[in-house]
Amino acid sequence: MGRGSYEKKVHLAFIFALIMSLISLVGCSSSPTNSTDTKASSEKVMNIGIVQIVEHPSLDAARKGFIDALKANGYEEGKQVKLDYQNAQGQASNLTTISQKFANDKVDMIFAIATPSAQAAAQQTKDIPILITAVTDPVDAGVVKSMEKPDTNVTGTTDMNPVKDQLALIKQIKPNAKKVGIIYNTGESNTEVQIKIAKEAAPGLGLELELVGVTNSSEVKQAADALAAKVDAIYVPTDNIVVSALDSVLKVAEQAKIPVVVGEGDSVKKGGLITYGLDYYKLGYQTGEMAVKVLKGKAKPQDMAIETQKEFKLLINKKAAVNMGITIPDELLKKADEVFE
Q1: Which of 34, 168, 311, 324 has its CA 20 to 30 A from that of 174?
Q2: What is the widest separation between alpha-carbon atoms in the chain?
Q3: Helix 57-72 with 280-295: angle, nearest 10 deg
Q4: pLDDT tens across 127-177, in order?
Q5: Which tens digits make up the pLDDT trace of 226-268?
Q6: In the predicted model, is pLDDT for residue 10 greater than 50?
């Protein structure tokens, strides 16, 4: 073998060894990236179905609060979670259809906003975790066995409002008031609970109730017209159908110059006169934090007590007072947590 041939072979061997070393280094540097990519792609995206009976400010705020709580705890829409929001447009048949679809799709969780939504979801599945909000009395609605220990696949928050205190506001803003009209949806169990409380509280407040039932939002104005000539004030509870048509009630009340006391804060912002109300955004956020515990496997609905807000704010709408011909007493204005001009 000649010297030139030998040197050539050594040179080629060196180049070959260098190439193999480079390949090895590239392989090592790319390995962690591939591992991370595999891990990221294997993380399960949680599917959450959201069913809402109807759109109005309070329920919309609760939904936003829920979604924000998820995001704040590492479950961002389009990344760690996929949200399927469905609005039933106030129709019970739509609630059933939506809930059936969620059950058939085997979503990881259902978020049910308002009593009819919670009832529909609970009827369709006993296995999928259901988080509820804006449900006045979950026990009466039949979705949990007790507030302290649901013992079902359902948990969440209640929006039980201080009905007696809200009715008492009528006497404070209109001391001579004797008859109060209430418009309510005959098919909504959460409203029946509030009506029962109102009936028990009214005599002690020196008030008589005039009740008008409706079955859908298109009947609300007619009900308000029927009440306007008979009552000294109107009380609107946290009834989803009636609140969704609140503008109709307000127009009638303003024409008749009678006050409208409402069951929740967003209705005051919208033109209702006064209330002791809770914050539906915070209520939804609170529910979202409960949902995170379920999604992370830290808790099960059957063991999680139904939660509520314990602080209610006095909210007053001064423009509504002018429109309804009412003078708000100074002592109420001084006590108010928030006054809308």
Answers
A1: 311
A2: 124
A3: 40
A4: 999 999 999 999 999 999 999 999 999 999 999 999 999 999 999 999 999
A5: 999 999 999 999 998 999 999 999 999 999 999 999 999 999 9
A6: no
pLDDT grade for 21, boundaries at 50, 70 and 90: low
Rounded-to-integer distance, Cα 184 and Cα 235, Å: 10
Q: What is the 3-state secondary structure (H, E, C) of the chain?
A: CCHHHHHHHHHHHHHHHHHHHHHHHHHHHHHHHHHHHHHHHHCCCEEEEEEECCCCHHHHHHHHHHHHHHHHCCCCECCCEEEEEEECCCCHHHHHHHHHHHHHHCCCEEEEECHHHHHHHHHHCCCCCEEEEEECCCCCCCCCCCCCCCCCCEEEEECCCCHHHHHHHHHHHCCCCCEEEEEEECCCHHHHHHHHHHHHHCHHHCCEEEEEEECCHHHHHHHHHHHHCCCCEEEECCCHHHHHCHHHHHHHHHHHCCCEEECCHHHHHHCCCEEEECCHHHHHHHHHHHHHHHHCCCCCHHHCCCEECCCCEEEEEHHHHHHCCCCCCHHHHHHCCEEEC
* Mean pLDDT value of segment 295-299: 97
* Burial letters 228-267, b for 16+ CB under 10 A, else e: beebbbbbbbbbbbbbbbbebbbebbbebebbbbbbbbbb
- Which of 69-84 are b and which e, b meaning 16 or more Cβ less than 10 Å from the residue's Cβ? bbeebebeeeebbebb
Q: What is the pLDDT of residues 170-209, one digit of tens each?
A: 999 999 999 999 999 998 888 999 999 999 999 999 999 9
Q: What is the mean pLDDT of the chain?
A: 90
For the chain, what percent of residues have pLDDT higher than 70?
88
